Each structure stands twice: as C-alpha cells, then as structure tokens.
C-alpha cells in the first residue's frame, strides 16, 4: 500500500519506535523566540545540559517587539527583559540570534521560509502553534510547549505520537477577490475549530496547487485553528522556484540532490488517509468571522447564525460569544462600522500580501474613523516593500508602514486594540481579548481588510472590484 | 556533561478525591486561560494569579462576582470544562497557570492536542470523558456544590462519588507511567542518546 506524504517524512525522521511509547522524532531545525524559551533555557541550566545541536537552532525576537522606533530601547520593562534574556541565553548556549536590528529579524514563521531554512522533507518545531506555516513547503512542522522546547534543545528530538492523517482537497476556480485566507477561513467554518484535532492535514487539489508559496503558507498557518497540529502541501515547481537561491538554501550539487529528493515527496495514489474532505472553490466567498473562535466565520454576504440553530448545550457558549462581539442573531455584517484594520501577523504579512493591499489602495485614502496598521512580517519584507515603493502608497492612503513583529495579532507589545473596538484583522485568532482586553476581532483576508480600511465599514471586496473593472 | 546532569522528576499523580470547579463553557482557548500580556514572565511560577484573568477580574482588577473562581461555593482540585478545552496557542503557561492555581486535574469531553501534551508534561492530568458523563457531572455539581469526584490514574477511572457513576478514560501508557513515577521525557530520550547520534550519522 502506498504512503502519505506525511508518513514518508515522519518515517524518515524516526530515531526509535517502541511499542507503548511515543516515537522519538528527529527535528531538523528548531526555531525559538523570546516568549516560550526562557524557562526551557533555565531547565537546561538546572540539568547541567548544553543545547545539543545549537547550529540547528534559529532564534529571533518577534512577539514582544515594538513596531515603531525599533532602533530605540524597548520601553516596556518586562518586554525588554524578555528580549534581553533571549540575547543572553543565545550567547551562552551558542545559538545564532536574528534579534532586533539584525537584517534577518522578523516573525519566526516569516523568516524561516524567506531565508531558505524551511525546505521540503524536513521537520521543524517551535514553541508557537503557528509553526504549521512551514508545512507549505512539504515539511512536517508543528508547535510545541516549553517543556518540549527544552526537550528539543537537550536532544534535537521530540517524543511524539504519530497523529492521524486527513486530506483536504479544494478544486475549481476561485472567484475574483477570493484568496488563500478565504479558503482556509471557509474550511474552518465548515469543520469547526476542533474539526482537525488529532490530525495532520495534507492540503491538495488544483486550487491549492494554483496558489503561490505565500498563499500556501497562509493556508498551512491556520491548520491549528481547526485543531490540527499541522498541515502540509506536497512540494512542486512553485516550491522549488521559491526556495532556489535563498540565503541558506542548498547550492550547486547539494541543490540538485535536494531537488531530486523533493520530487519524491508526494502522497502515493493509493495512500490511505484517516479522513478525507472535499471542497469546491467556486462555493467560497470572501470570508469574515463574527464570533470568538476562528470556526465562527461566514461568507461576507451571509448573516450571523441564529442561536436557535445550535444544539441546546451549545447555545450558552454561542450567546456569550455574540454578546462579547456586540452582534445579534441574523445580523448582516456588511456596512458595519469598524475602528481598526490590522494587516500583518504570520498569516498575512509577506511581500505578496503587502503588494496585494498596495495595488488595491493605490490612489485611495482610508476612512476617517479607522486606524490602520500595516506591519511587515520581517525586516526583509519591510525593505523590499520600501524598494518597491509600497510604503509611499500606504502613506498616501493614510497608513504608514510599520516595523516587523507579531504586533496586534496578540498585543504583547503596544499595538493593542482598545476595549469594545472592532478590528478587521488579517491575523489568525479572534478569541476574546486576543488583540487587547475586550477588543473585538473580525478575521478576514488582506483584500477584505483593505476594503474595510477605505470605507470604514465591513465591505464586500467584490463590489469594489466590479466598479473598478467598469471604470477601466 | 551527561554524567553530571541532575534527573528532573515531574510532579507525581496517582489518585485524587475532591470537590470540583465547574466551567460549562465550550472552546475555552489558551488566551482565556492566560492572556498573552501575562506571558512576559521568565519563570514557571505565579501564573495562577492571572488564570482566566479577564473572566475573573474587571478592568480595575476587582473580582467579578459571577465568575466561578470568585464564587465562595465552588472549590476543589478538579476543573471541569466544556468541549475543546485549551484550543489555540501552544503556550505551556496555560498548563502552568491551571496547576499553579491549585488544580491537579482538568475534565472535559474534548481537549486540544497541544494543551493536552503540555498538561501531561507538568503533572496536570487531562481526563477526556463522554458528553453524557460530562453532562451528569455538571448536573451533580450544580445540584450539590460539594459533590466529590474520585480520579484513579492507576485503574484509569473517574467517578462521581454521590451517584457512583464511573467512566474509564484513555491515557498513553508511557505518559501514565511518567505521571505515576515522576519520569521525565528528557531523561527517556537521553537514555537513547546513542541512537540519536547513530541516526545523525546515517542521515545526510
């Protein structure tokens, strides 16, 4: 019987497999950042252990960093302490750090791919659930807790039970104005925030194949939002073209050998999955969330579901979520005034996202009632955006390009959405208080977020695109 | 280096009988358990003070009377919550906060993967029960706040003491041994270090 892509990569990384024990899985690269690593370093010190393979460990500062005046010392004391601690720990344990001021600094899941560290067929972990992003390259990548960060530091391995395998196929032509973010929000809305728990997902189908690497990263990034530990997409020419020539990508003969291996990385035709789901791309509208978990999403023309449509035992939680969001049964979101727009996060802060937003907002200006933050995913994205003149377009539209970091996705720095305010956000989570205490998040694609910035209201991007077509 | 290191025992768990704290909400994510702004600490201690921070305290840090942790009637070392508990972020701080507050067990009809692993790595036992058992457990505690629950890890069962209703639960046998004996994953992998080095030699 054939094997799934997931199993091929997993099997190639099993150091030891014993009945009744989880597998010992070898980790090719361990990404670390300032928030989930300090206690792990302390653990190593307590045990008197070194980092086993420091050269396979890559560090950056992203969660806590300010996105304005990054050259100045971090104002917030605890954030500064945590970032300084990372610098100290990396120096002590011999780990390369792409810290503040370094040309490679940025959100950990943006810099791995753009530096050519993320490659097909490898295993990646990080103390961050959106590590699933790296699966876009046909890799096994997933988030871990701090005890496991310590484990990987100490052994370059992880004790891990093999998950079940799920295949999600999306086929067909996407509507205009609908992109990767809408695809993944649509899938999560169909299978719920727990629908993928216990699984590793392989995304397949011609719609997925047609996406750029940036789009594929957006899809894999949000695998965790349906509960799946990770998601992956078989590598193809798009993947190879993206990796080629990047800083740490293999070169010369090594490159040829690598590509030959990558071309063996696909699920065999007769591979068995534990679950298979199929979606039609034509059914997907621009998506928006209305609730307090990423599964609570609707097509932008649809109405908020009625409480009575849920099972009795779920109605309490549902009513609580609508109350938090200040929304009611059967409400249409189109036309709803909003206060903030956040374009950024490991889901949507890559150069392609910024280009798409810039192309749309060029010659337009944001609505007066809206504050807009555009936060690039990395220093390299920021510099590229400036080189392409995107910063000028953003500035003319009323939203200056900021500096890289996780920013308002989780509000660990100053970029917090105030209580009660609505933010159309390209990030990945709409949990209560995620973007600041009592903030209200509406997750959407970069285009839908940009449209909201211009009109000051939740807007169907397709109506804009139609008008622009009529004019041109 | 290997010879000098200290073995690290995790918290040991075998058996417990206590009253419970009911939180009948579904999809409780780790941002509710411990909001991101409290993740700036660099040690494992003290997170219990901010457990369920924004449900527990208002914007002026006054306790919200209607939240169960502030309710004088409910106490105990077992937290009982709705399905898909611990979804969202991989922050182990969520498990630390629950444990630091004083809970040894979390019961739900469904757990998010990463949370479950983090809990087990910290001697906090996540017990997945059926929807029916969860419903009956909530009913038992809402009719008598002092209703006790017995958890037996060795024999893998959970029991509502007043009604005698009991259900067995699943746990990976390795993880069970870790909890009962205080074993630690790192010690286990280090005992296989020769295999790891062998693997590295064979893999380009």
UniProtKB/TrEMBL annotation, chain A:
Q: Which Pfam families match?
A: Aconitase
List GO molecular-function terms, semicolon-separated.
Answer: 3-isopropylmalate dehydratase activity; 4 iron, 4 sulfur cluster binding; metal ion binding
Task: Pinpoint the Aconitase/3-isopropylmalate dehydratase large subunit alpha/beta/alpha domain residues.
Answer: 7-456
Cofactor(s) needed by this chain: [4Fe-4S] cluster
Its recorded reaction(s) are: (2R,3S)-3-isopropylmalate = (2S)-2-isopropylmalate
Q: Which domain of life is it from?
A: Bacteria
Q: Which PANTHER family match?
A: 3-ISOPROPYLMALATE DEHYDRATASE (PTHR43822:SF9), HOMOACONITASE, MITOCHONDRIAL-RELATED (PTHR43822)
- Self-association state and partner proteins as the record states: Heterodimer of LeuC and LeuD.
**Pathway assignment:** Amino-acid biosynthesis; L-leucine biosynthesis; L-leucine from 3-methyl-2-oxobutanoate: step 2/4
Protein function:
Catalyzes the isomerization between 2-isopropylmalate and 3-isopropylmalate, via the formation of 2-isopropylmaleate.
Q: Which CDD domains match?
A: IPMI (cd01583)
Q: Which residues bind [4Fe-4S] cluster?
A: 346, 406, 409
* Name the record gives this protein: 3-isopropylmalate dehydratase large subunit
Q: What protein family is recorded?
A: Belongs to the aconitase/IPM isomerase family. LeuC type 1 subfamily.
Biological process, per Gene Ontology: L-leucine biosynthetic process
Give the keywords, sorted: 4Fe-4S, Amino-acid biosynthesis, Branched-chain amino acid biosynthesis, Iron, Iron-sulfur, Leucine biosynthesis, Lyase, Metal-binding
The cross-references to Gene3D superfamilies, in alphabetical order and at most eight, read: Aconitase, domain 3
What's the Enzyme Commission number for this chain?
Answer: 4.2.1.33
């Amino acid at each position: 019987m054939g094997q799934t892509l997931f199993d091929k990569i997993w099997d190639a990384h099993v150091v030891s497999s014993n009945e009744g024990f989880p597998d010992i899985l070898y980790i090719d690269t361990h990404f670390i950042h300032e928030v989930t690593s300090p206690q792990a370093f302390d653990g190593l010190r307590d045990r008197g252990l070194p980092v086993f393979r420091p050269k396979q460990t890559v560090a950056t500062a992203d969660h806590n960093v300010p996105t304005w005046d990054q050259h100045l010392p971090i104002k917030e004391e605890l954030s500064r302490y945590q970032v300084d601690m990372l610098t100290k720990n990396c120096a002590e344990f011999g780990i390369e750090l792409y810290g503040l001021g370094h040309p490679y600094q940025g959100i950990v899941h943006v810099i791995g791919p753009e530096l050519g560290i993320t490659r097909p067929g490898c295993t990646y972990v990080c103390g961050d659930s959106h590590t699933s992003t790296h699966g876009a390259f046909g890799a096994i990548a997933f988030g871990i807790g701090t005890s496991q960060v310590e484990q990987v530091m100490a052994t370059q391995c992880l004790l891990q039970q093999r998950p079940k395998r799920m295949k999600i196929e999306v086929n067909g032509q996407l509507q205009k104005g609908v992109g990767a973010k809408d695809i993944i929000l649509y899938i999560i809305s169909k299978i719920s925030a727990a629908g993928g728990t216990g699984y590793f997902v392989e995304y397949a189908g011609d719609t997925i194949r047609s996406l750029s690497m940036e789009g594929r990263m957006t899809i894999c990034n949000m695998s965790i939002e349906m509960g799946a530990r990770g998601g992956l997409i078989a590598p193809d020419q798009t993947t190879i073209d993206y990796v080629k020539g990047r800083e740490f990508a293999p070169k010369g003969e090594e490159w040829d050998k690598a590509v030959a291996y990558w071309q063996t990385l696909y699920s065999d035709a007769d591979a068995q999955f534990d679950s298979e789901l199929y979606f039609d791309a034509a059914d997907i509208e621009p998506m928006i969330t209305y609730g307090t978990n990423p599964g609570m999403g609707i097509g932008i023309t649809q109405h908020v579901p009625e409480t009575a449509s849920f099972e009795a035992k779920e109605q309490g939680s549902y009513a609580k979520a609508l109350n938090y969001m200040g929304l009611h049964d059967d409400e249409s979101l189109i036309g709803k005034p909003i206060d903030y727009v956040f374009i950024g996060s490991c889901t949507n802060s890559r150069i392609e996202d910024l280009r798409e937003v810039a192309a749309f907002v060029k010659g337009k200006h944001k609505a007066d009632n809206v504050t807009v933050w555009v936060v690039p995913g990395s220093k390299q994205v920021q510099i590229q955006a400036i080189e392409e003149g995107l910063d000028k377009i953003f500035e003319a539209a009323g939203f200056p390009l900021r500096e890289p970091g996780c920013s308002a996705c989780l509000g660990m720095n100053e970029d917090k959405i105030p209580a009660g305010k609505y933010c159309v956000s390209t990030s990945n989570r709409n949990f209560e208080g995620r973007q600041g205490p009592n903030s209200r998040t509406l997750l959407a694609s970069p285009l839908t977020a940009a449209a909201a910035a211009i009109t000051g209201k939740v807007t169907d991007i397709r109506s804009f695109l139609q008008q622009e077509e009529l004019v041109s | 280096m290997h010879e000098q290191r200290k073995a690290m025992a995790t918290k040991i768990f075998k058996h417990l009988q206590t009253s419970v704290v009911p939180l009948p909400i579904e999809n409780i994510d780790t941002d509710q358990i411990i909001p991101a702004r409290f993740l700036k600490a660099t040690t494992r201690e003290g997170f219990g003070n901010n457990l369920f921070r924004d449900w527990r305290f208002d914007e002026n840090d006054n306790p919200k009377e209607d939240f169960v942790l502030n309710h004088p009637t409910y106490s105990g070392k077992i937290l009982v919550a709705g399905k898909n508990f611990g979804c969202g972020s991989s922050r182990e701080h969520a498990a630390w906060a629950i444990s630091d507050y004083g809970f040894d067990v979390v019961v739900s009809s469904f757990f998010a993967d990463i949370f479950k692993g983090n809990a087990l790595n910290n001697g906090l036992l996540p017990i997945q029960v059926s929807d029916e058992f969860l419903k009956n457990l909530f009913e038992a505690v809402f009719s008598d706040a002092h209703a006790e629950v017995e958890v037996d890890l060795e024999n893998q069962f959970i029991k509502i003491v007043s009604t005698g209703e009991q259900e067995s639960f699943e746990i990976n046998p390795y993880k069970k041994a870790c909890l009962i004996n205080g074993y630690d994953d790192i010690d286990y992998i280090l005992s296989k270090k020769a295999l790891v080095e062998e693997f590295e030699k064979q893999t380009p």
